[in-house]
Amino acid sequence: MLAKRIIPCLDIKDGQTVKGTNFVNLRQAGDPVELGKAYSEQGADELVFLDITASHEGRKTFAELVKRIAAHINIPFTVGGGINELSDVDRLLSAGADKISINSSAIRNPQLIDDITKHFGSQVCVLAVDAKLTPEGWKCYLNGGRIETDKELLSWAKEAQERGVGEILFTSMNHDGVKTGYANEALAQLSDSLSIPVIASGGAGEMSHFKDTFTLGKADAALAASVFHFGEIKIPDLKSYLCNEGITVRL
Fold first, then answer.
1. Helices 86-94 & 111-120, crossing angle to 10 degrees?
2. Which residues span the domain enclosing 32?
3. Is residue 24 very low, low, confident or very high in pLDDT (cuts 50, 70, 90)?
4. 226-230-235-240 Cα dihedral, nearest 10 degrees
5. Which of 45, 51, 88, 130 is catalytic?
6. Is 24 inside a domain boundary?
7. Is 11 a catalytic residue?
8. Phi, psi at 98, each rounded to 5°
9. pLDDT of residue 21
10. Strand runs labelled E in 22-179
11. What's 87's domain CATH number?
C-alpha cells in the first residue's frame, strides 16, 4: 500500500504566509522560508506554496520567493498561483518547484492542462479545485474562491484526468479553516471515480480528521495549514498517531 502523504500548505499574500477561514479574514502566519524549512525538517512529505492573490491581481507568482524556499527544503515542492502559460511553468520549475498547481487558468482554458502535461509530463501538473457545496451540488470557483463557475466538481476532475493531470488537490471552501474535518463524502466520490491521486484540503482541526480523510475520504494525501503554522499539531506527532491507527505513512 502506498504511504499516505502529509502536506503543509503555505498560502502566500504579499510575500507572507497567511491563513483565513472560508477563504476570507486572512491573518499572518509567519515567514514562508522559515516555515518551509521547519516542515521539511519535521518530516513533511511535500510542501505546497500557493500565491493566493496572483490570479485575482492578474500577476505572476513570486519566482524569487520560490527560489528561496526551494533552497531550504529537500522534499517535493508544488507551487501555484498566476500560472497561465508554459513559460510560467518553466520559470517556476527553474526556480526550484517540482510540480505546479493550476486552478483558475485551467477552468478558463482547459487546453492548458494538455499543453503542460505534454511538455513537462503529468507528474508536474496538479489541478487545484476550490469548490463549494451549493443547493445545486459542488460548484468550482475561480480567483481564490471569489467567482462561481458552471463547472461541477466531479465532472471537472474527470475531464482534467482525461487531459493528463497528475493529481487533484480538492479544497472544500465550506470546510476551509473551520477545523471540523475534511469533506470526506465528496473526497470518497472523487477517489472512487478517478485513477489519479486525490489530495484533501480544508477542515483539519485535530489528528483524527487526518485519519478520517484517509479512511472515510479515501484521500491519498492530506493538506493542512493553520494547525501546522500555529503549532496546534506537530507533524512527527501526527505521523506517529496515524501509524498507531494502522495508516501507512513515511516515518
1. 40
2. 5-244
3. low
4. -100
5. 130
6. yes
7. yes
8. -95, -30
9. 61
10. 24-30, 47-51, 77-80, 99-102, 125-134, 137-142, 147-152, 167-172
11. 3.20.20.70
Beta strand pairing call for 77-80 and 47-51: parallel
Task: Determine the pLDDT at residue 15.
Answer: 78
Residue 165 within any structural domain of the chain: yes
Length, in residues, of the chain: 251
**Which alpha helices (DSSP H) does 95-136 contain, by range?**
104-108, 111-120
In sequence order, the β-bridge partners of residue 40 are none
231 contacts: CB under 8 Å, gap ≥ 6:
none
What DSSP state is assigned to residue 73?
A: -
% helix, strand, coil for the chain, step of 5: 35, 30, 35
Q: In 3D, which of 129, 174, 133 has the Cα closest to residue 156?
A: 129
User: Within 13 A of 4's CA, how many CA atoms are on the CB side?
Assistant: 26
Dist. CA 104–CA 29, nearest whole Å: 25
**Grid-cell match 469548490, residue found:** 131
Q: Which of 10-19, 43-52, 171-180 has the lowest mean pLDDT?
A: 10-19
Q: Which of 165, 206, 204, 172 is nearest to 189 (CA)?
A: 172
**Domain presence at residue 214:** yes
What is the percentage of the chain residues whose pLDDT exceeds 70? 92
- The verdict on residue 230 lying in a domain is yes
Contact indicator for 95, 63 with CB cutoff of 8 Å: yes
Q: Where are the alpha helices (DSSP H) in 43-166?
A: 54-57, 63-70, 86-94, 104-108, 111-120, 153-162
Query: Angle 229-144-22 (CA atoms, 0-180°, nearest 5)?
Result: 60
What whole-number distance in Å separates Cα of residue 172 and Cα of residue 217?
Answer: 13
Number of structural domains found in the chain: 1
